[in-house]
Amino acid sequence: MWELFNFYLIPGIVLGCIYALGALGISLTFGILRFSNFAHGEMMMLGAYFTFTIVGLTGWHPLAAALPAMVLCAIVALGLDRAFFKPFRQAPTIMLVIASFGLMLMIRSAVQFFWGVSPRPLMPGIQRPQAFLDGALLIAPKHIWIIGTTLLVMLAVHLLLTRTRTGKAMRAVSDSPELARLTGIDVEAVIRATWVVGAVTAVAAGVMLAMDTQVETLMGFKMLLPMFAAAILGGIGRPFGAVAGGLVIGVVEEMSAYPFIGTVPLLNPAYKSGIAFGIMVLMLIWRPSGLFKGRVF
Amino acid sequence: MDGYALYVVGLLTAGGIYAILALALNLQWGFTGLFNAGIAGFFAVGAYVSVILTAPESPTIIGGYGLPLVVGCGAAMIASGLVAWGIGRVCIRLRSDYLAIATIGIAEILRLVFKNESWATNGPRGIAGIPKAFEWVPYPWNQVAFLGMVLATVLVIYLALETAWRSPWGRVMTAIRDSEAAAKASGKDVERFRLESFILGAAIMGLGGAYFAQYLKYFGPETSDPTSVTFLVWVMLIMGGSGNNRGAVLGALLLWAIWSATELLTSMLPPDWAVRSAYLRIFLIGLVLQVVLQRYSKGILPETRPAVVGTSTRAGATTGNAT
Fold this sequence. Notes:
The complex is a heterodimer of chains A (about 300) and B (about 325).
Chain A: H1 2-33, H2 40-58, H3 62-85, H4 93-115, E1 130-132, E2 137-139, H5 141-163, H6 165-175, H7 177-182, H8 187-212, H9 219-234, H10 239-255, H11 272-286
Antiparallel strand pairs in A: 1-2
Helix pairs in contact in A: 1-5, 1-6, 1-8, 1-9, 1-10, 2-3, 2-4, 2-8, 2-9, 3-8, 5-6, 5-8, 6-8, 9-10, 9-11, 10-11
Chain B: H1 3-31, H2 39-54, H3 69-91, H4 96-116, H5 118-121, E1 127-128, H6 139-166, H7 168-178, H8 180-185, H9 190-216, E2 218-219, H10 227-240, H11 245-266, H12 271-295, H13 309-322
Helix pairs in contact in B: 1-6, 1-9, 1-10, 1-11, 2-3, 2-4, 2-9, 3-9, 6-7, 7-9, 10-11, 10-12, 11-12
């Protein structure tokens, strides 16, 4: 019983938190810019590499080093928007998808060029899990950090969306860009804010994934499918639906490796990423608007 | 024949196979506006299916039926088409973004299957010693004969697609691409037409995979790496001119020439730099894509509308009156 909890459910929640933060950014970009940003995973990866370098230079905790990395990535995201997405504001959205597809490979190959391809650890050494409830419940300290940080980031995004002028403008543009423009909202400023929020949440997700595993150049691409699946499961354009979707997919992925029947894992762990795909396909058949009534385009 | 000429033959063969893939993508994207981001997946299905059917018996893979290569190619097309049918049934009615995600997904899952099911595909080590067409021809000429077969296939597919482009079927495709609502309003079964275009395109990609496995005489999970297959084919089509079959072929040959030439250049660098600059090449190809998208979105050979018989006579009549 505790084995299922300690080795499957908790890692599942941790993974789900990371997916949730990633899906949050994808869902926000989709809501406001109306396209699936394939380069989102690479922004996570870039943030993790910036953090890796900052940790190497300063010796800070990765979560502290993530803050300057977020600033750097926000600047990169704004620059990329100016150079590669802005020219297509009035064009069919599929042009944006192609541009982001190209950008995905450009960012990845740039990182591979500068940092090399060998995976590197972000947290040195192996951490002993912390015991609770007389040693029955075991949680690694980094997992506590990850869950805590996710809650913090989500609270911040929630407050931003509901309590600030920028957040309200973002929601207005997401509902109807034309109406928002007519009421005098500066849509370009909203788009810039979206890229900044997207970059910050992506870096948070990337750094936490790197803390849990390691820094590698394909980490962003591997996250792409679960993040999209989470965004679709929760309903595109519904940021907190994406969070719920991420948690569901993370937990199901980890639990699928538990030997529920006999002694072998229910599903070969090599096929974990197939789960996200399966959930996504089922949702597209059954209810493309997602669990929380998002948009279908 | 000297080594230099043989190198060119090899280059042209690979370029021809890429032209087949670019033509297939043109059918899906240029004609009908379907965003297929999983070319590598259909390519790999075709390759593995044809290899399993045509390879001699071997302990490392399943199958090994030693069937004729034609049967292998046909089965490759059917298998890829079936995969496309499955995805298409789910996603084709939704916006193109969903199809893009689903095709990326299926390509990735297929790669995992080919990598992990070692009993069937020899896993990450891949399959070597794949039978190739014209192997009975004496040495340098078998390569030339294979090139001939590839180029003939390109020609056949090109002519077929040109006919399709001019046919009512092709016109429905572009109508759907340009305005789904208008096509629906004139009574066209949009989903069925889209599905047809998607399945046909995927089948041709499967054929491309079967040829590529023969060309290399080897196929492994990394041969169908999404970067080199999916991405290159997309840049080829967009650079050459989507919606134009000649543009697809031209873009494929041109980009493949650039890609191979830069590979030749980087291989002359010191080893450490050669590895790194391989990534620089991908970066530059990505930049080419962005520049083409923004500045020359119609490509080198822009799409040309086939003349509609009724309209052209009327247009001719008006000009006649004016003069």
